[in-house]
Specification:
Helices cover 49% and strands 10% of the residues. It is α/β, with parallel strands linked by helices. The protein has one domain: NAD(P)-binding Rossmann-like Domain (Rossmann fold, 3-Layer(aba) Sandwich), CATH 3.40.50.720. An 8-stranded mixed beta sheet has the order 3-2-1-4-5-6-7-8, sandwiched between helices. It is globular and about 90 Å long. Keywords: Membrane, Oxidoreductase, Transmembrane, Transmembrane helix. This is LAFE_0H03664g1_1.
Length: 393
């Protein structure tokens, strides 16, 4: 068919091509739209890596967006996946079976671990570490997150403070405290890996961290008044990113019995870009189903399709961080945490990332505050348990 059209144009002129004038008028607009879409889709990961036999812990994999795209790619490459889920209900197991079917990989497992519940995080980490010899772990990929409606349309949705089971603001608990606690507790597992094992800790962040604040004396934001949900979200991302720099430092400076340097363990921050994700839908719709249908699905979707990524495209930077040989110990030029944006290493813009004293103090204060909170919640659980026993008798 294309050859026939070319022949007709050469022999009889463009008048022989049906609708040629209409196509000629539309072509410039289509070219501009195509160029914008090509630019907005972002870079593609071009590195390949054999993941057969490797073991990864994933959070946020059940998102049906970026997280699911990453999990599917790793599963197809033969990796064993331990997927942490807030709930291990019938839907979660069906999702897991579907992932096994699509990837042809049966080594995919679901574990219940709600990151906004410190008790569940500690239970999972303790179970993981309570093994001799130490379990193999090639990396942790953190893609989970929580965004609360910003309340930009008064009356359409509630912007009241939601709390975790530990009493923390839910965004701060999920995006910062739970992830920090998990990675901090898993440090012995990272250090126990063999020196030839390339271990990567990949944590996704958001460009909104540029709007965040750091509270050194109250890193869990227990005393902060809830006025602006976006402030809690952006600050949770900023504080987590800063703590990841300190985590890398501590893994490198640890005393290894076999004389290792710890440089086989890499901490990477990834900013996947603006995606048509659950978080974006929640922000635009303000948590209202009506506004979701009107604003997101009808008014803005053509522009969002043109200017934002889908989950598969957002996953490319995460896959790049996992597969690039630049982070292998033999190829590493320095010991700094890499910040990957659009499959490229970029520099941090906030001045806090250069303040080593602030970063160290934030890490220490966060660990201390979490430990104190865990003790308070343990006392509360024991009291409730004893009260239930008393009522039975």
């Amino acid at each position: 068919m294309p050859l026939n059209l070319i022949e007709a144009a050469i022999v009889g002129g463009t008048d022989q091509i049906p609708y040629f004038n209409e196509l000629k008028r539309i072509a410039p607009y289509a070219a501009v739209i195509g160029a914008i879409k090509y630019w907005s889709r972002g870079a593609t990961n071009t590195w390949e890596r054999n993941l057969n036999g490797k073991v990864y812990i994933l959070t946020g994999a059940t998102s049906q967006g970026m997280g699911t795209s990453v999990a599917l790619d790793l599963a197809r490459r033969g990796a064993q996946l331990i997927i942490l889920s807030r709930r291990t209900d019938e839907w979660a197991f069906e999702w897991c079976e579907d992932l096994r079917s699509r990837s042809g990989n049966e080594m995919i497992y679901m574990e219940q671990c709600d990151l906004c519940d410190l008790y569940e995080v500690r239970k999972f980490a303790t179970k993981w570490l309570d093994n001799s010899p130490p379990r193999r772990l090639d990396g942790v990929i953190v893609m989970s997150g929580d965004v609360e409606p910003a309340g930009w349309i008064p009356g359409w949705a509630s912007s009241k403070r939601r709390s975790s089971s530990d009493g923390l603001e839910v965004q701060m608990a999920t995006n910062f405290v739970g992830v920090f606690h998990l990675l901090d507790l898993l440090q012995p597992s990272f250090k126990a890996q063999t020196p030839d094992r390339d271990v990567r800790i990949i944590v996704t962040t958001c460009m909104l961290q540029a709007l965040g604040e750091v509270h050194l004396e109250d890193p869990l934001w227990e005393q902060e008044k809830y006025k602006n949900p976006l402030k809690f979200f952006s600050s949770s991302k900023l504080q987590l990113s800063l703590c990841m720099l300190e985590l890398q430092k501590r893994l490198l400076s640890a005393q290894y019995k076999d004389g290792r340097t710890g440089r086989n363990i890499s901490v990477v921050l990834v900013q996947p870009g603006i995606m048509r994700s659950t978080s974006l839908r929640r922000i635009i719709s303000n948590g209202s189903i009506l506004m979701l249908c009107v604003i997101y699905c009808i008014l803005l979707y053509p522009f969002l399709w043109l200017l934002t990524k889908n989950g598969f495209r957002g996953a490319q930077s995460v896959l790049y961080a996992l597969m690039t040989p630049e982070l292998e110990e033999v190829n590493r030029q320095d010991d700094e945490v890499k910040y990957i944006v659009n499959c490229s290493d970029v520099k941090f813009s906030r001045k806090e990332f250069k303040d080593k004293e602030l970063i160290e103090k934030l890490y220490d204060n966060t660990a201390a505050k979490i430990l104190a909170l865990e003790k308070r919640m343990a006392i509360k659980r024991n009291k409730n348990k004893n009260a239930k026993k008393a009522t039975k008798h």
